[in-house]
Amino acid sequence: MAGVLNRIYRANRPAFHSLSPKQARIGYLMGAEILDLPRAPLARVENFQVPGAEGPLAARLYAPSDACLPVLLYLHGGGFTIGSLDTHDSLCRQLALRSGAAVLSLNYRLAPENRFPAAVDDCWAVMTWLAKAAPSLGLDGSRLAVGGDSAGGTLAAVCALHARDIGLKLALQLLITPGTTAHADTASHKLFANGFLLDAASIDWFFNHYISHHHKRDWRFAPLEAEDHSDLAPACVLLAECDPLVDEGIAYADLLRANGGQVQLELFRGVTHDFIKMGRAIPEALTALEACGLALRQAFEA
Prior knowledge:
Helices cover about 35% and strands about 20% of the residues. The chain is built from nine helices and eight strands. It has helices at about 1-10, 20-30, 90-100, 120-135, 150-165, 185-190, 200-210, 245-260, 285-300, and strands at about 45-50, 55-65, 70-75, 100-105, 140-150, 170-175, 235-240, 265-270. Strand 7, helix 8 and strand 8 form a beta-alpha-beta unit. Helix 3 packs across helix 9 and helix 4 packs across helix 5 (about 150-165). The chain is globular.
């Protein structure tokens, strides 16, 4: 991991917080899959439009076979400001390949053009649509999970809370290095503020584009702030030890477990945020992908 960080540093790419959102999106796209595994071939990879909260959104379906498979709604990371179907293409292919399930990756609306809660509204709209429309895609909507990494992990946790509130049964919430707290004020935010890939200045840049300070205690941004964490879908939480978000990830897993939830917590030592997208470089990424695949398989079988 230290070698990866050193190579990233020597590449001398500008920090996200020094760029405009448009520039940051281009930069993230150009570098997003350099360390990822090669894009795995699958039986189905299809682009189409899905109904978001305020209009159609782009989505991409991945499936390892033409069978009627269970489906994971996947929400990409990128601080609610950057990221796309293409930045997470390799990751979604690996999740489909290793789980044996279909994966629907969603291009929810991004900030600052669409500030909070636009992304939440889109994810909720597509989740409820997918539960009903899955048969039209040749999928099993009765076996539905939500997942995501980083900001997408936040959105997945919020989707699980909403699913409970509307009576939609989910097989699993797959939370990869999620953000869950309101004000980025845990000890790990201080300990890993600089030099560990996701810097404090970039976190501030993402959040300032996405949400106003006085809204940050809204549970749709900070799921730790929700009033009730009981009766939620089983959770698989994957965290990186050297990540500003690690403390809040642990706190959320503990809170789910304290409220009677079924929780699998995997803490990967010595790696940083976004490590799961570094399968060419570090073995922990492969272990994490396999853990995701196994958790999804077991949840869908149950």
